[in-house]
Amino acid sequence: MSKNILTGLLVSGSLLFAAATTHAAECSNRGVLDEKFCDENMDLVADTPKDPSQWRDPSTLVFTYTPVEDPAVYKDAFHEFQEYLTEKTGKKVIYYTVHSNAAEVEAMRSGRLHIAGFSTGPTGYAVNLGGYVPIAVKGTAESFQGYNLIIITKANSDIKTVADLKGKVVAHTSASSNSGNLAPRALFPNLNITPDKDYQVKYSGKHDQSIMGVLSGDYDAAPVASDVYHRMIDAGRIQEKDFRVIYTSPRFPTSAFGYAHDLNPELVEKIKDAFFTFRFSKDMQSTFGGADRFFPITYKEDWKVIRDIAHATGTAYTKTGLQKLAEKEAAKAAKKRAAELAKEKG
């Protein structure tokens, strides 16, 4: 699989959904899923195709994780799990790095991606448009691993309460991010602060870039995922004493892990077995905040709070919504590249 295939999806939003869609035959319920899929059991995710000829059983499985922070770190972090997947499925498993949420969704929709971890916000796009079936979240024997939306400022900032954000420059991460954009837009008005109205929003692209931007003074504050913030502290990339946390939200689930809906059911059972019997090594536990396994979840129940936030902010998990996301991500990538070229020349 060529790297240019997926990266090209980021550059040109017009490539999204260029292929003709196949209507789900004799579907009595589709819900909010794209017309390619059916949901007759009403669990809010795409059913396995009724026609066995539509089941896929690839010789090589492609796996990826959401494009946050340093992609190389996560490619290495999931190496042991990839080997376990190979052992359980009897198939070669390769890791493919995607550089945008839109590209990851389109890779799942187009059949290039078989198993994936999607960050909290984009999971809805992957389910509705990509035929993605979430089954797990990183966790422990007791529960899934959650995170909070936190608002950070510099420790010496004059911003000490949420009200102090008025008139400031605040970094949001990306349009589809739950804690980095959607949750702030849904929750902050109840705190008498409205993004874009009471403060200027600037998109940083990623949680770690928001955090580093606050540290460098590029932004006055930022809503970010608490797990990313604490991982950066634990890794020594930042020091907790340099920041002040002025708000902490209720708990959200972290990245969802799952598979493409049209994989052969026998293969799906092997994939599920791999997820639910795998145990994280000490290195993986360190990387993922103490999580030691994949904890079973359902999209219908465990993603309800995330869907509610999306609905409250007018976010639609539709083709148009994803295309807008792709265009925003492409514009940000072009702007970042232009800045890097200018820096090289300067």
Automatic annotation (TrEMBL):
**Species per Swiss-Prot/TrEMBL record:** Marinomonas arenicola
Assigned keywords, A-Z:
Signal
Q: Which NCBIfam families match?
A: 3A0109s03R
Q: Which Pfam families match?
A: Phosphonate-bd
> Corresponding gene?
phnD
The record ties this protein, via PANTHER family, to: PHOSPHONATES-BINDING PERIPLASMIC PROTEIN (PTHR35841)
Q: Which family does it belong to?
A: Belongs to the phosphate/phosphite/phosphonate binding protein family.
Report the protein name in the record: Phosphate/phosphite/phosphonate ABC transporter substrate-binding protein
Superkingdom field: Bacteria
The residue range of the signal peptide is 1-24
Stretches assigned to the Solute-binding protein family 3/N-terminal domain: 60-291
**InterPro entries, sorted:** PhnD (IPR005770), Solute-binding_3/MltF_N (IPR001638)
